[in-house]
Each structure stands twice: as C-alpha cells, then as structure tokens.
Write a structure and sequence with these properties.
single chain, mainly alpha, Growth Hormone, Chain: A, 2 domains, 16 helices, 0% strand, globular
C-alpha cells in the first residue's frame, strides 16, 4: 500500500504537470490566432467551442473515471491534449484552430476530476476515511498554482527570445509538457481500487460493459447533489466562482490595454498581473489549513475567504476609475487578494465536498462541480460583457462582486455531512463500530 506522504508527493507532481501546459499557452494564444489571420469574432468562436465541449462532456467523463479508473482517463486526457496543442501550433486558419480547441476541451473535461479523486482514495486507503484531506489538497493546489505562475511568465517571455514562428514556441513547449504528464501518470498513479467495484477490474472489462455503467454513475452523482442539500449548496458556489473568474479574465486585458495604450505592453502587463495572482493562489492554498484552524473550522474559513474575494473584486471595480501606472498597480493588488482568497475558499470547499461523497461517485461529483464552474463562466460571457459595453467595466465587476458575496450565504447553517455509504472503507468502519457496540 502506498504511504500517504508518497501519494501527496505524486499528487502534487501530477497537478503541477497538469496545469503547466495551460499556463504556457495563456499569454500567446490569442496573439497566435491573430497573426495567423483570425479576427476577434473567429477567436471568440474558438473559445466558445472549448467551453461548449467541456459543458457537454464534463459529466460523462467524470462517470467514466469512476468506472474504468482515474489513471486511464487522465492518461487519455494528456494524450488528447498533446494532439490538440500540436494542432494549434500548426494551425493557419479558423478550422484547424477550432479542431485544436475541441481537442483541448475534451482533454480538460477528462482531466477535471481523476487526479484529485485518486489522491483522496489513496489517502483513505492509507489512513482511513477520517484522514485530514486539507494538507494534501493544499499541496496539490499550490503545485498547480506554481505551474500556472511559471507557465504564464515563461509563455510570455519565450516569444521575445525565440526565432522564427516565435508565438508558436510556447505552444510546442506545452505539448512537450503534456507528454511528460502522460508518462508521469502511467508511472505515478497506481490504482488499488475503483469506486464502483472496490478493486481494479481485471482488464477494465469490455467497452460495452463500461459504457453501460457510465450513465448510472452520472445519475448517481446528480441525484446525490439534489438529495444532499449541503452538497447541492456547495456545488452552487462554483457557479458564482465561474462568473467572477471569467469576468475578470474577460475584461482585464482590455482594461490594461486602455491603461497602457498598446497591445504588446498590455499583454506584458497582463502576464505580470496574472502571474502575481497565481503566486497568491499558491500562497493561499498553503495557508488554507492554518486559516481553517484560526477561523474555528472549514466552513467559517470558507465564508471569510469568500468575503475577502468579494471585497477584492469590488476594489478591482473601483480601480476602473484610475489611470496609468496607478491603475495597473491597483489591478495587480486586487488580483493578489482575489486569487489568494479564492484559493483558500476553493480548497476548503473541496474538502467539504469530499467528506460528503463516497469513492464511487467522487470523480463524477468533481465533474459536476467543474460543469457548474463552466456554466458560471458562460453566464459571465453572456451577461457581463454586454454590461461592460453598456455601463462600463467597473459596473460589470461590481455585479460580479455582489454575486460572489451572495454565494457566501450558501455556507450559512450548512447541513452536517451524511455518512458516505457506498464507500467500502466507510461501510467497513461503520459495521465494525456497530459490532463493537
């Protein structure tokens, strides 16, 4: 059996390698499409295709991970991402970029839950169902944030020193990082059991048998979210987070372009501001367990962190009235507070979710959560962008702040978690306790 410390290290490594490719492509992606002839409407179509694929595939892929295993699904995600990134690096018109975006969306949907579900299962196997999830989840979230920070800075600087097709260089680097992820997943993620059977199936079973199990797993995950009021409220928080995150990512580049007056300097400023936010995300993830102790529990700490995020988004909205370097610095400070607070709230919310979900539904519920986040992002694109055009960026960010603040109410009087029956470890401990009584 793998030790909890070994599982924690491997989970952190996998999280780092999972988030390094999107970090590397964050800065050059839009510019690459622009220099290869796509207009803003076509670029928007490419982004919309990515979100649409995730929304459609999120639940089926989560159920698939619960049926055939986390390692298989995450390895396939890495392989698909390699193909998508190579396609993007070579694309020269809208259709190849659309294909690349679809492939990346498939990879994102496949990878949204398996690694975390694998870690929680490994920790429960090593320490039992009452094991403290916070330290390992914090290390994993920190590793992902560090990867995004390094990737964003590297992806923004590589085109300055590369020759030839400079904007494609970070994309090729991201494809290479995905290959490393594929190899690492195959080596570092031994599975001792699957959620629905208690043990890894002999040869994963026949494809037809597996696919028959997926819809049932999905229905179970959705039913759990509807019948467990506490879990349903925790999942709704993700919609507000999606509205907020997409709102600031959608509107900040234009705001910085207005402050700097040039697209290239705006891109550099955005890379720095984003890197600061990701660094704060890493620090917040590490601090989350301590914040929970100081606040007297995970629920109280999540509420306080959510209030901090709402205040920081409101400060970002207020900074829309500033000009020049003062405006850029204000945006950077707001980003630090937003991402630090959001990382604390998200990690503690994840812990609260896991304590309500049995192993057999864990990856599915993680996919439901990711789906909620994407749904919030879609709402943000539909509502906040027109609001910004009509009333200004500051008004749109103020609306996002109000939504985040309102989501803090979902934690108030959160119902106590039910025993996660369906998880063999929990059932075994419950039976043993009953027999001792």
């Amino acid at each position: 059996m793998m030790s909890s410390e070994a599982a924690r290290r491997r989970y952190a490594l996998i999280q780092f390698l999972t988030w390094l490719p999107p970090g590397l492509t964050m800065a050059p992606m839009v510019l690459l499409m622009s220099v290869r002839g796509l207009d803003i409407a076509q670029i928007g179509l490419v982004f919309a295709a990515y979100s649409a694929v995730i929304v459609v595939m999120e639940l089926p892929t989560g159920g698939l991970a619960d049926v055939i295993g986390r390692r298989v699904v995450l390895a396939v995600a890495a392989a698909v991402n390699v193909v998508g990134l190579v396609t993007m690096a070579l694309a020269d018109s809208v259709w190849p970029f659309l294909v690349a975006s679809v492939l990346k969306g498939v990879a994102r949907a496949l990878s949204s839950g398996p690694a975390q579900a694998w870690y929680v299962d490994a920790l429960h196997a090593a320490e039992g169902p009452e094991a403290d999830l916070k330290p390992g989840l914090a290390v994993g979230a920190t590793a992902g944030a560090v990867a995004l920070t390094i990737g964003a800075l590297t992806g923004g600087l590589l085109p300055l020193v590369a020759r030839g097709d400079a904007l494609a260089v970070p994309v090729w680097a991201a494809a290479g990082a995905s290959v490393v992820l594929l190899v690492t997943v195959l080596w570092a993620m031994p599975e001792t059991r699957t959620a629905r059977g208690g043990a890894v199936r002999g040869a994963r079973g026949r494809v037809a048998e597996v696919m028959r199990d997926v819809p049932a797993t999905i229905v179970d995950g959705i039913r759990l979210g509807l019948t467990d009021r506490g879990l349903g409220r925790l999942l709704l928080v993700s919609i507000a987070a999606g509205v907020m995150l997409n709102g600031i990512e959608l509107l900040t580049p234009g705001r910085l372009a207005a402050l700097t007056g040039r697209a290239d300097t705006a891109s550099a400023a955005y890379a720095v501001v984003t890197a600061l936010g990701f660094a704060a995300n890493a620090a917040g993830s590490l601090a989350a367990p301590a914040v929970a102790r100081l606040a007297g529990g995970s629920v109280r700490a999540a509420v306080l962190a959510t209030i901090v995020v709402a205040g920081a988004v409101a400060a970002l909205a207020a900074s829309a009235g500033l000009n020049g370097r003062v405006g850029i610095v204000a945006a950077g400070v707001a980003y630090v507070l937003i991402f630090a607070g959001a990382s604390v709230a998200e990690l503690l919310r994840g812990e609260l979710i896991h304590r309500r979900v049995a192993s057999g539904r864990r990856a599915t519920v993680m996919s439901v959560d990711s789906l909620q986040l994407q749904f919030g992002a879609m709402l943000s694109s539909v509502a906040l962008a027109p609001l910004a055009n009509a009333a200004g960026t500051g008004v749109a960010w103020t609306a996002a702040a109000v939504i985040v603040l309102g989501s803090a109410l979902l934690y108030v009087r959160l119902p106590a978690p039910r025993p996660a029956f369906g998880d063999p470890l929990v059932e075994r401990n419950s039976v043993e306790g009953h027999n001792r009584a």
